[in-house]
Each structure stands twice: as structure tokens, then as C-alpha cells.
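TA notes, week 10

Several of you asked for a full example with nothing omitted. So below is the full record: C-alpha cells for the whole chain, then the designed sequence directly under it. When grading your own attempts, check the secondary structure regions first.
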């Protein structure tokens, strides 16, 4: 299986308004890009690499919503294939800081997970990329493979 990104769910203890969500996101260094939040990389990598460490889609009523409308759940994704593995720790810290800031929990496939489980999940996906594609996350060759598979 090809893992271009790895996604986790953050389930807040209560639904958040757009204003509440914005305060939380800004406190964690997130930036609002029109209708979604993302955590920018602290330094610019290669042109083919992701510019973000985490991408957050907000969910209302089971549907992806505009982040300015608030949320009942967040899908937090790590751009695995297009970012160096050196950012995994920062992503996990951000994922669990976000869950803590909204008094929520982190889930994957409807099961609550902890930091170590998140690290293992991402590690397994990295191993699969290396085994199946022969490329490290964030490599130029892997980005070329991704783009060519979309055509």
C-alpha cells in the first residue's frame, strides 16, 4: 500500500466554534490557509518537499468543513511521502498538543491511541515506502513517482 500521507483523528471533548478553534490553532503555531489549518515547516526544504508538517481538515456533521466554521472533529495528516522523516517527532508532539488543547483524544481507525502507537504507525508506513518503492520519505525520486502516478 502506498502511503502519501498518514492521517489521525483528534476528537475534542466538545464542538469548537471557529473563534475557539482559531485561538487553539494559533497557540500551536498553525496557520490558516483559506479554509484549512497547517503547521509550516520551520525551514524551507527542497522544492519537491512539503512546506508543512501537519495539515488539519475540520469536520462538522461527518463532512469536511471550512475551518472558520469550527469543528466536531479534526483530521490531522502528516505528509509522509513528501517530507523527511526527521519531522515525525515534531508532528507527533503537535498531534498530542492539539488533542490536549481541546481536552480531546487521538484516534486512528476509531481506536484511541497514544504517542507510542502513533510513532509505530508512522514507522510502519515509512518501512512500507522503503520496501515497496525503494525510496526514503521526502526524496526527489519519490515525489516524481507520486506525480507520475497521478497522470
Amino acid at each position: 500500500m502506498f502511503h502519501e500521507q498518514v492521517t489521525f483523528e483528534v476528537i475534542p471533548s466538545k464542538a469548537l466554534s471557529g473563534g475557539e478553534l482559531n485561538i487553539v490553532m494559533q497557540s500551536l503555531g498553525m496557520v490558516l490557509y483559506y479554509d484549512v489549518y497547517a503547521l509550516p515547516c520551520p525551514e524551507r526544504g527542497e522544492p519537491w518537499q512539503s512546506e508543512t508538517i501537519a495539515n488539519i481538515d475540520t469536520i462538522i456533521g461527518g463532512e469536511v468543513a471550512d475551518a472558520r466554521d469550527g469543528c466536531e472533529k479534526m483530521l490531522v495528516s502528516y505528509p509522509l511521502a513528501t517530507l523527511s522523516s526527521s519531522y515525525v517527532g515534531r508532528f507527533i508532539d503537535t498531534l498530542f498538543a492539539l488533542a490536549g488543547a481541546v481536552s480531546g483524544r487521538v484516534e486512528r481507525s476509531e481506536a484511541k491511541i497514544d504517542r507510542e502507537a502513533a510513532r509505530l504507525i508512522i514507522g510502519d508506513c515509512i518501512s512500507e515506502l522503503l520496501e515497496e518503492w525503494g525510496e526514503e520519505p521526502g526524496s526527489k525520486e519519490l515525489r516524481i513517482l507520486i506525480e507520475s502516478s497521478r497522470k
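Helices lie at 18-27, 88-101, 115-133, 140-149. Use that as a sanity check on your answer.
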